[in-house]
Amino acid sequence: MPMCVLVKEDSHILPLLKAGDTLNLKYYSPGSPHSTEYLKTAIRDITKDNHGRFKNHYLVGLEILET
Fold first, then answer.
1. pLDDT digits (tens, 9 = 90+) for 2-56
2. For residues 18 and 20, what is the distance between their CA atoms, to the nearest angstrom?
3. CA dihedral over 19, 23, 9, 29, signed as positive or negative
4. Which of 7, 12, 28, 46 is at a distance of 20 to 30 A from 56, taking alpha carbons?
5. Domains in the chain: how many in total?
6. Please, what is the average pLDDT of the chain?
7. Which residues touch 60 (CB under 8 Å, ≥6 apart)?
8. Cβ neighbours of 64 (radius 10 Å)
9. Whole domain around residue 34: which residue ranges?
């Protein structure tokens, strides 16, 4: 299932993100707001949206590597 996060182009976090990096991200279960787990997640791509709904933002594509 493809997923991404939206990052504003002037965000201080953007220069720290690189395609190919692996992060240990915290995920919340949809059924319970108190149930969380950390999953190894890769940054697959970072694409700037110059037009449309997300103008002046970057879409950071993610892939969970373990479940």
1. 799 999 999 999 999 999 999 999 998 887 777 899 999 999 999 998 888 889 9
2. 6
3. positive
4. 28
5. 1
6. 91
7. 4, 5, 6, 7, 17, 43, 45, 46
8. 13
9. 3-64
